[in-house]
Amino acid sequence: MITLEGVTKTYRMGKFEVHALQGVDLHVAEGEFIAIMGASGSGKSTLMNIIGCLDVPTTGRYLLDGTDVADLNEDQLAKIRNKKIGFVFQSFNLIPRTSAQHNVEMPLIYAGESGRAARAREALGAVGLADRANHQPTELSGGQQQRAAIARALVTNPAILLADEPTGNLDSASSVEIMKLLANLNAEQGRTIVLITHEHDIAQFAKRVVEIKDGRVVSDERKAA
Amino acid sequence: MNIFEAVGVALNGLLSNRLRSSLTMLGILIGVAAVILLVAVGNGSSVQIDNQIQSLGANVIYVYPSNARAAGGVSQGFGTGQTLTQADVDAINSRQQDPSVVAAIPIASSAGQITYANQNYFAPVTGTTTAFPQVRNYDLAEGSFFTEDDLAARHRVVVLGPTVVTNLFGTADPIGQTIKISRQSFRVVGVFASKGGTGFGSQDNVVVAPITTVWAYLTGSRGKVIGQIVASAASPSTVTQAETEITTILLQRHQISDPTQADFQLQSQQDILNQANSIAAALTLVLGAIAGISLVVGGIGIMNIMLVTVTERTREIGIRKAIGARRRDVLMQFLIEAMVLSGLGGALGIAVGAAVARVLPSIPAVASSNFPTPVVSGPSVFLAFGVSVAIGLFFGIYPANRAARLHPIEALRYE
C-alpha cells in the first residue's frame, strides 16, 4: 500500500539546510494499523506530509497504492489526496459555520461525485453521529468534532487513513473513544491506518510501532496479534 | 466541482460574515446608484433641451446676414452685414422656386424700456409680418394678432408674451391698454399663449409689433434693416430641401456664383438641436465619469475585504486543499465571492438609483426648480450591472489568486 525507498527531505531555512529526513525506507501493507512515533524535531511531521501527499520527497521514491507520487504536480497531488488519503488532524480542522453533513460532503464535492448527501449520512452513521448531521462544529464536543472529521476522511473510501495526533486536543476519555473507533475501523473494515503520535499509550492501539529519530527509522516493532 | 456548487460555497462564505459583506456591497451600491442617477439626470437635461428647442418649431429655418464685405473683399464680423431685404422675403414667400417653404417672415429686432402705469420692464421687441404666429408656432391666448392694415399703415399696436404681461399688468387685463416702448405709445391687441419654455431665451418673453412700425418708431435712425428671415418648411423632414431652395434663391438674387462667398447664413432648428445634443452628451459623459470614480473606489473596497478574507480563512483554504481542492477550485470560490458581492451590490445600486430618479421630481423643492426630470436609460442599467460584475472580477482576481497559491502545509499551520 505504502512504499518509501530512500526518502530524504531537505529544507532551506535562510542560509541553513535542514535535513528533516535522511533516508527513510518503510513499507506498509494493506490492512495494517501502524503508529509512527518520534519527539518533536524527529522528522515525523515531514514524513506525515510526504505520506499525505502534501509535500514531495527531495530524493527517493514514494509509491502509494501503486502510484509513484514523487513527480506529480500540485493539482495531481490534490487529486491523489482527494481519492486515496483520508486526513484526521489534531485540531479537527472542520470548516467553521458549516454543518457536519456539509463538511463530510466536501471531499465528494471536489471529487465531483454524485449521491453525496446519502454517502455523507452513511459515513456520519458509521462514526455514530447520525443525529448530529445538521450541527455546526461549534455545536459539537471535541470528541464529536473528531468523529465528524473521521467521517469526512472515510467518505471517499480512501486507500489509507492518515491520523496526525488525532487525540492531541482531547481529554483522556474522548481519546480512548476515538482510538477505539480507529481500531475498530482497522479490525472490522480492514482500513489501512497510519497514526502519527508522540504518546506511547496512544501508540499502543496500533499493531505496529515505528520510531523516528533525526530523520531516520530507529525501531520497527510488530505486536503479536 | 460545478458552477452551482461553487456559487453555493461562495454564498456560504459571504453569509457567514453578513455585516462585512453588506458594508462591502454598499460601496458598489453607492457607486452604481450614482452612475445610474447622474446619467439619468444627464439624459433628462438632454430631453429637456430637446423639448425646448422643439417648442421653437422643428421645421424652422433662420437666415442671417453674413459677414459684410468692405471694398477690397475684407470680410467683417458675423452679422455685420445688412444684406437681407424685403424683396428677398417676398421672393422666398412667392414659393415659385421653393415649394418646400410654407411661409417666410422678416424680423427686425429692437429692445426697449417698456412702461405701463408705474410698472417698468425691459424686453426684446420683434418687428415682423402677419405670418409670425404661423411660422414661429405661437397661439393667441387673448385678443388677436395685428393685421395687414396695421402693417401697411404702421399702426402702433403690439402683441405681448405672457411673461411681459405678468410683469407689467399683474393680473389685470392688458387688451386695449396703452403701453410705452421707448416713450412711444402702443396699444395692446393680443396676448400669446405660453409656450412653457424656460431658460434658454424664454419664448414667453416677447413683444411683437408690425415691422413697419418698428422701423418707423423704434429703429428709425438705422433704416429698414432686416436682422433675419425666418422661414418654415412644411415638415421637419423637408427642412433640408427647403434650405437648399432658399440658398439657391438668395444666391441668384444677390448675384453670387460661389456659394462659399455667400453674404448670408442658414441655420435650421436641426442644427441647433444637434449642437445642443452634443453638449448634452458631453455633460452626460462627464457626470457618468465622475460617478464612475466612486465605482472604482467600491471595487478597491472589494479587493481590500477579499484580501482580509483570504488571510482570515487561510486555515480553511489549507483544509480544503488537504481534502482535494485544486488551485482552480479555490480560485473560483474566492472569485465568485467577489463577483457575487459586486454583482449583488450593482443590482441593488440600480434599484436605488432608479428609485431616487423616480422620486426626485416629486420632491417640492426639486419640482419648483428648473431641475431636469431624470430619465433612466436601458443601456445604462445593463452597462452599470456589467461593469459592477467586471469590477468584482478585476479586483477579485488578485486576492483569489493569492488564496489559490497558498501551500497546503503552511496554510494548515496558520493560526
Strand order of the largest sheet of chain B: 2-3-8-5-7-6
Q: What is the succession of H and E elements of chain B?
A: HHEHEEHEHEHEEEHEHEHHHHHH
What is the number of E strands of chain A? 10
Tally the helices of chain B: 14
Structure description:
- The complex is a heterodimer of chains A (225) and B (415).
- In chain A, helix 4 (116-126) packs across helix 5 (142-154).
- Chain A has 7 helices and 10 strands.
- Chain A has 225 residues and is α/β, with parallel strands linked by helices.
- Chain A has one domain (31-53, 80-222): P-loop containing nucleotide triphosphate hydrolases (Rossmann fold, 3-Layer(aba) Sandwich).
- Chain B is 54% helix and 16% strand.
- Chain B is built from 14 helices and 10 strands.
- Chain B has a 6-stranded mixed β-barrel, surrounded by 4 helices.
- Chain B is elongated, with a radius of gyration of 33 Å.
- At the A-B interface, helix 2 and helix 3 of A face helix 1, helix 10, helix 11 and helix 14 of B.
Features of the shown structure:
heterodimer; A: alpha/beta; Rossmann fold; 6-stranded mixed β-sheet; 4-stranded antiparallel β-sheet; 7 helices; B: alpha+beta; 2 domains; 6-stranded mixed beta barrel; 14 helices; 10 strands; 54% helix; elongated
